[in-house]
Amino acid sequence: MSVAALISVEEYLRTSYSPDREYRDGVLVERNVGKKSHAELQTALGQYIRNRRKQWNIKVYTEMRIQAREGWYPIPDVCVYPLPEPEGEVPEKPPFLWIEILSPDDRMTEVWEKARNAIACGTPYVWIIDPYTLESELWTASGKMQVADRTLRLPDSPIVIPLADVLEE
């Protein structure tokens, strides 16, 4: 068994990694790099959401480091913030909507753990999507639920994201 070397937050934030890494309590965490289906859906979601940014009063980012809590710097595939947008190059508040697109190498237990942690850190909604089937689930503080008819509808929000339309645009 190998032991990971601890690094400081400062060293993590000033270093570029290829592929990019997340940071959790002093340890670099590898991210599974998606394949074409993952990249296509990530790009399409970012564009679809960005095209509605004024209507929804939001800002969208792809693969941006955030500080979910002290010592945890994850990189959501897509994240959505209400306006005004977060300050700083590495936002210190959780997004309103955190989107994870599954990669073939993802282990569901790790994805679910990330969703639980994101919710615990204050993210109201975590949407996990399979890029091959477009089946998905929405995680909230109340639990998780399957997303019906491949369309995300956020309660008390104008945000509605039909995945079929996302990929057609």
SSE layout:
Elements (H helix, E strand, L loop, with lengths): L8 H6 L6 E4 L2 E4 L5 H16 L1 H4 L1 E5 L9 E2 L4 E5 L14 E5 L6 H13 L4 E5 L6 E5 L2 E4 L4 E3 L6 E3 H6 L1
Parallel strand pairs: 6-7
Antiparallel strand pairs: 1-2, 1-4, 3-5, 5-6, 7-8, 8-9, 10-11
Question: What do you see in this structure?
Answer:
- The protein is an alpha+beta fold and 169 residues long.
- The protein has one domain: Alpha-Beta Complex (tt1808, chain A).
- The protein is built from five helices and eleven strands; from the N terminus they run αββααββββαβββββα.
- The protein has helices spanning 9-14, 36-51, 53-56, 108-120, 163-168, and strands at 21-24, 27-30, 58-62, 72-73, 78-82, 97-101, 125-129, 136-140, 143-146, 151-153, 160-162.
- The chain has a six-stranded mixed β-sheet with strand order 3-5-6-7-8-9, sandwiched between helices. The chain has a three-stranded antiparallel β-sheet with strand order 2-1-4, with no helix packed on it.
- The radius of gyration is 16 Å and the shape is globular.
- The model has no long low-confidence stretch (mean pLDDT 93).
